[in-house]
Amino acid sequence: MSATITAPTPQALARHARRRGTGARRRRLLLWIATHALAVALALMFLAPVGFIALTALMTDQQALTSELWPRSWNWDNFAEVFEKSRLLRWAANTLLYAGLGTLFTLVSSVPVAYALARFRFRGRRAAFLVVISTMMLPPQVVAVPIYLVWARLGLTDSLWPLILPLLLGDAFSIFLLRQFLVTIPRDYTDAAKVDGCSDFRTLVRVVLPMARPAIAAVALFQFFYCWNDYYGPLLYAGVEQENLTLSLGLATFKAFHSVQWNLTMAATLLVTAPVIIVFFFAQKVFIEGVTLTGVKG
User: Fold this and answer.
1) What are the residue ranges spanned by the domains of the chain?
2) Range with the poorest average pLDDT among 2-11, 255-264, 267-276, 279-288
3) Is 188 exposed, middle or buried (0-12, 13-18, 19+ CB in 10 A)?
4) Distance of CA 295 to CAs 25, 54, 177, 228, 286, Å?
5) How many CB atoms lie within 10 A of CB 118?
6) C-beta of residue 66 within 8 angstroms of C-beta of residue 50
7) What percent of the chain has pLDDT above 90?
8) What is the 3-state composition of the chain as percent helix, strand, coil, each rounded to the nearest 5?
9) pLDDT at 294 over 60
10) Which CATH number fits domain 80-293: 3.10.25.10, 1.10.3720.10, 3.30.565.10, 1.10.287.990?
């Protein structure tokens, strides 16, 4: 008596391959979750407030006052209502002016100072660097009153210019970060440029700046985010006129006027924070590269 062995059909082979593929993907997924369990938990912990803000922004004003977490209806018109009840576009224009010019002025003024502290040999170089570092330890509240009196005598209060113009004199943290990166660039490049007849300025523009793009991008992002989120400075100088407010200060005033309408407050918060999240999402690679490559040499 002989047993007959039948060959599996193509359909059975396909089903078996699909089951094996599904099982392999499930194992890889479980292995990835087990390996990154802590990172996943931290990511969920940081994303939970953002999710709460987004869900509350889509609720009605009555439901936003309850303990429910999921909207009964998706009220996308809450975002349109925020624009109707606030000067959000004007605040965004003021914030872009502050952040854009502030970032540009910081780079223009900080890069030459950092290059001089990193490359030039002169008496008092270390003392000058220590003075720059020491200004980072001075709280802004200490000098707020005398600086405000100076700008008041110049007639520039009730505007953002007292926050923008001082950045033409450099920023201590930006100078420090750029200087720490520039000292890591080998001198052979700058020496070769000078042998070819380049001046110090041309060496900086043609040789050093292209090599320092990661650090410059990191400094630009740091300064842009600081200006975008700045609340203390506009609170001192912007005044009470709605035309002069930035997004951070305007959001605080909007919350004060709509303190019981949490859906509108959350919608406004989401609109204010979304541009920063989008910018960082697209620029995170160069930002992390710049911070990582920044040296700590003396």
Assistant:
1) 80-293
2) 2-11
3) exposed
4) 41, 39, 9, 27, 16
5) 21
6) no
7) 18
8) 75, 0, 25
9) no
10) 1.10.3720.10
Q: Mark residue 47 as left, alpha or beta (left: phi above 0; alpha: psi -120 to 50; beta: remaining).
A: alpha
Identify residue 157 by its one-letter amino acid code: T
How many whole angstroms separate alpha carbon 195 and alpha carbon 214? 26
pLDDT of residue 296: 44
Rounded to two decimals, what is the model's pTM? 0.79
Find, among 161, 163, 160, 170, the residue nearest to 105 by Cα.
Answer: 170
Nearest to 200 by CA among 104, 105, 119: 119
CB atoms within 10 A of CB 131: 11
Render pLDDT for 230-277 as a digit per residue (tens, 0 to 9). Answer: 999 999 998 878 888 999 998 888 888 877 788 888 999 889 888 888
The pLDDT-based confidence of 13 (bands split at 50, 70, 90) is low
Tokens describing residue 230: 């700045």
217, 290 contact by CB (below 8 A): yes
Q: Rounded to whole angstroms, how far apart are CA atoms 45 and 281?
A: 18
Token readout for 71 is 């909207």
**Distance (Å, rounded) from C-alpha 105 to C-alpha 99?**
10
Residue 12: both structure tokens together: 């059975």
